[in-house]
Amino acid sequence: MVDEISALLSLINTSARSLERGYTDERGRVPSLDDTEPHPLDGQISSPEMREAVQVLEGACAQLCATLARPNHTVLNKFFMTALEPSCLRVALNCKIPDILQHKPAGMHVADIGKICGVDAPKLARILRLLSAKHCFQEVERDVFANTRLSVQLLSANPLYSLGLHMTEDTTQGATQLAETLADAEWGPSTDPAHSAFNKVTNQPLPMFDFWAQDPEMQSHGTRFGIGMLGWGTAVEAEAVVRAYPWHALPRGATVCDLGGGVGAMAIALARAHPHLRLKLQDLPARMAQARAVVWPAECPAALAEDRIEFKAIDFFAEAPIAGCDVYYLKNILHAFPAAECRTILKGVRQAMKPGSRVLIHEYTLQTAGRSALQQQLTHAPAPLLGNYGAGRIRQYHLDVSLMVLVNGGERTLEEYVQLAEEAGLRFVRVWEFGDMNGVELCAGEGEC
Questions:
Q1: What predicted TM-score, i.e. pTM, was given to this entire model?
Q2: Could you say which of 276, 335, 362, 380 is catalytic?
Q3: Residue ranges per structural domain of the chain
């Protein structure tokens, strides 16, 4: 055990020093928690070395604390009491407290904050104090609060604000009924998206996305979710796919279909980085209208002016995507559906493909205990960390359970993706690493790969 503690301490020191060098080599300073202006590296995709160092640092710190602290202490602090944090964060989001504090960088007394947002000041102070203990806000003196490097990510202009509202409302409320849903004799084993914990809470019969689309009072949730996904993509560095996959090797005029791409966050990134590509964006009619009228004119007007982007609504359970594209890109699509629906989607893609086409599934691939031949293709953490990095890659397991709560979906292992592909007439080519996430590349069959 002494050797394991020493190894964890060594990993912590090595990874922290690596991150320190990464900051100072590039821009000359390590960011402070008190900073409310972004560090120059904050808007860039992390280098593989810095990304690995963060995962090791988080995993090793969590494993060391779990090893050395009393187990009842850790269970209480890390599992039980953290259930309160989303509700506290929702108060801050609803009140737009980061926006309020943005105009008072030295801090504002909670009495003044309370007057602006209409919340009882003594109670608000207690909520902000809890969040400040985790460095989201800071209490600069008693009852005087200011923004931090973390809380400025929650400004209402940041897409993470919309994601935060979704996570602290739809997801958190749904999670309150997870145990009851799993214990239900009919719903527990069901893969029906309308048999989710979210449905238990909302007491209505439609899958979440259909509910949002068909209920006029809930349509704002769909719009909010679309904006929030822009923030999610930035936070998980989904745009790493723009560099890591060989888009540059595709010929000029090659077509990429972003299937189920929402308002087109990833398509925008591809359009900016690889102007030689022609892009096809396909999703539900409401998302296409939002993309065409609002998002692309603001975020990527050049692609519109140069006719490099096409918008086409689709129901990918009833029709195939645009035919003859060179790459069919599916980001965070299959994880929302059970296997039967995934096979339907992939068979539709297979129908649309031409010889030489590729499919690129961009999602998390869950790492589990055991090291099968396919699992060996994924990066494993250095000993004595858990092979999946533990807390260093906790996001994929949080997302997995969130999908269970909301739509009865979930993340999959690489073996499960390969099986789905084969059942749809596709063949596994290789797995890529795109930041936090992975890319599972498929081709159309034995003779076309």
A1: 0.91
A2: 335
A3: 79-154, 159-229, 237-365+412-448
